[in-house]
Amino acid sequence: MNLNTIVQLRHQLKECFTRGADALFELADALSCESAARSLPELSLSAVFRRKWPSVYAALEDGRIESQRWSKVWTDSLLASHEGHVWISLDSTSIARPEAETSPDRGMIYVPNLPHAKKPVSVGWQFSTMMLLPTHRSSWGAILSQQRIVSSQTAVEVAIAQLEDVRPLLPDTVRLLADRWYVTGAFLAACQRLELEALMRLKRNRKLYRVAPPVGKRGARRLDGDLFQGSKPETWGEPDQQWQGLDEAGKPIQVAAWHQLHFRQAREIEVTVYRVLRERAKGTRRDPVESWFCWRGPVPLLLSEVVSTYRYRFSHEHTYRFLKQDLFWTKAHVRTPEQFERWSLIVATAMNQLVLARSLGQASFRPWERRQEAVTPRQVRRCMPAILAQLGTPAQAPKTRGKSPGRAKGTSVAKAKRYPVIRKPKPVPKKRLTSA
Question: Cα 41 to the chain's mean position, in Å?
Answer without folding.
Answer: 27
